[in-house]
Amino acid sequence: MHAITLPHNPTDLLQSTRCSAALYLACGIDPARSNIFVQSHISAHAELTWLLSCITPIGWLRKMIQFKEKSKKSGNGEEVGTGLLTYPVLMAADILLYQSDLVPVGEDQRQHLELARDIAERTNYLYGGKKAKKMGCEHTRLFKVPEALIPPAGARVMSLQDGTAKMSKSADSDLSRINILDTPDTIAAKIKKCKTDAVEGLELNNPERPEARNLLTIYQCVTGMTTEEMLKEVESMRWGDFKPKLTDALIEHLRPIHGRYEEVMGDSAVLDRILARGAEQAEKEAQATLQNVKQALGFSSRLHT
User: Fold this and answer.
1) What predicted TM-score, i.e. pTM, was given to this entire model?
2) 193 catalytic, yes or no?
3) 297 by DSSP, 3-state: which?
4) Which structural domain range is residue 208 located in?
5) Annotated active-site residue in 70, 131, 195, 245
6) 63 with 104, same domain?
7) Is 144 one of the catalytic residues?
């Protein structure tokens, strides 16, 4: 999950939304097993975000790394949008609405998940248990407290231009990252220009060589090798030998995703049906959680005449 800045042209946001959904499908998520939907199609996300915002101390939000870093970049922080401060609460609502047990995240998102856990525990303490039972709630534990599911390799992928900074789509230089839809020529150019060092041989766990660690980690992730297999193959190589190998591995890893993406984007009707079906199923789960929380907080039910 990443905070976004709304584009000036609404058409750009619409196209970006469709592309993101198509990429999920292209990367192998099966809509028969997982609901894929547009967040804004489920109003419970925004509604729960507001309720949780009233429970979340602002001090918790000011400690979030992304907010502190981007505020610092803006100078005095006066120009930072409120959405950047409150976005982690929306992320918490995204997770807690569906009573998640495990949440797959990268290392850079651990803090956001910890916040979601803190919000869940605070809400359960303030309004759950006997208090929720007194309010007639069906479920007295309002939220499950989720655990992070972090992969053993690739939990934090770093910039191709700086092995100490994370790879990010919001970075100024496109050379700092591999985008899923990059062409083979673009990937080759980026790897050719990526930052390395002058040390002989390749090492994975030398803290003095962050670029080596990063590029080897990327290679391991796209090849599916174990650490031992990967090191046996490449640790004696020079950068001039390894870079073409990494380029080929990235291209081959992304090739089937590119093909599937073109298929999905080529049939907008099918994509729309998948998103509509996903939203319909997600709506049921989201509303069940939201209504239980609202009842615990004392909100009255709407009367039907």
Assistant:
1) 0.86
2) no
3) helix
4) 174-263
5) 70
6) yes
7) no
